[in-house]
């Protein structure tokens, strides 16, 4: 069995995100470009030593392939989990210039129908990260594709990558639909309140989603 191969990548930037989350950008050197090329939806395994323990965790790539080919950068978003070893270390200790052991992209949560006309993604909390890469890549790689995102959070102030989503909405006004479902903030429309469960998905499909026009792409489950 082959041993997983980690490479030291330099942290180019650490940017604050909502509710204590961080976006970590890695610079990928020329000789590793091919090893780190990815499909939107895949994840990286990050590895470090914390209090003498070898710790490895997976984080989905949230950036696009075009940014990878142009700027040679990969980005992940990390939301600190209460009592979590790696996520809190990354959110408070990592800084630009640090080196971190990173395994090349892996995972099968990727686009299965490359020419879908309309994709719909469901995400909650930090589950947005792989979907963000899939949305942006979908828009960049086709002039006509549409995407509808149903995104669950407690309240708007805790929406991870809200600015990135708004930028995408501004850029692709007629092709991207964002539907926020909030569990701890009142909305004008009751259907947009609560958690994304089976009943909510059915309600959304019946009222807001043009079922005949979309191809189910993925469902990102909330991370605990
Ligand atoms: C494919 C994949 C992609 C992912 N992508 C992302 C992403 O893009 N962004 C993101 O933020 N996360 C992502 N995750 C989750 C991420 O990998 C980590 O699991 C998460 O950050 C928590 O790691 P941690 O080391 O901080 O927490 P851990 O230390 O692993 O702890 C997790 C939880 O368990 C509790 N716990 C730990 N030990 C014990 C114990 N002995 N008894 C009781 N409770 C305990 C902790 O308090 C904490 O609440 C992804 C996971 C997978 C599998």
Describe this structure in words.
The chain is of the alpha/beta class. It folds into two domains: 100 residues, Beta Barrel (Elongation Factor Tu (Ef-tu), domain 3); 102 residues, Rossmann fold (3-Layer(aba) Sandwich). It has five helices and ten strands; from the N terminus they run ββββαβαββαβαβαβ. A six-stranded antiparallel beta sheet has the order 4-3-6-1-2-5. Strands 9-8-7-10 form a four-stranded parallel beta sheet, with helices on one face. Strand 7, helix 3 and strand 8 form a beta-alpha-beta unit. The longest helix has 14 residues. It is globular, with a radius of gyration of 18 Å. Bound molecules: flavin-adenine dinucleotide.
How many domains, as an integer? Answer: 2
Q: What's the overall average pLDDT, rounded?
A: 92
CATH class of the largest domain: Alpha Beta
Could you say what the CATH architecture of the largest domain is? 3-Layer(aba) Sandwich
- Estimate the helix proportion, in percent: 10-25%
- How would a crystallographer describe the biggest sheet? 6 strands, antiparallel
Distance between the termini: 32 Å
Q: Which class of secondary structure composition applies to the elements?
A: alpha/beta
Summarize the structure.
The protein is α/β, with parallel strands linked by helices.
């Amino acid at each position: 069995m082959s041993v997983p191969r980690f490479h030291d990548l330099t942290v180019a930037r650490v940017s604050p995100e909502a509710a204590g989350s961080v976006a970590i950008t890695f610079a990928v050197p020329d000789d590793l470009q091919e090893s780190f090329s990815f499909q939107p939806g895949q994840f990286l395994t990050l590895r470090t030593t914390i209090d003498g323990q070898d710790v490895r965790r997976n984080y989905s790539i949230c950036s696009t392939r075009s940014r990878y080919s142009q700027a040679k950068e990969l980005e992940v978003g990390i939301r600190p989990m209460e009592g979590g070893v790696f996520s809190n270390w990354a959110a408070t200790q990592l800084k630009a210039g640090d080196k971190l052991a990173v395994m090349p992209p892996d995972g099968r949560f990727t686009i299965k129908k490359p020419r879908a006309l309309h994709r719909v993604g469901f995400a909650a909390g930090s589950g947005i990260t792989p979907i963000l890469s899939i949305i942006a890549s979908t828009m960049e790689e086709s002039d006509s594709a549409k995407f509808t995102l149903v995104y669950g959070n407690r309240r708007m102030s805790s929406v991870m990558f809200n600015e990135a989503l708004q930028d995408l909405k501004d850029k692709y006004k007629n092709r991207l639909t964002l539907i926020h479902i909030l569990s701890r903030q009142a909305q004008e429309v009751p259907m947009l309140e609560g958690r994304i469960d089976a009943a909510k998905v059915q309600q959304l499909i019946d009222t807001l989603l043009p079922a005949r026009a979309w191809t189910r792409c993925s469902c990102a489950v909330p991370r605990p």
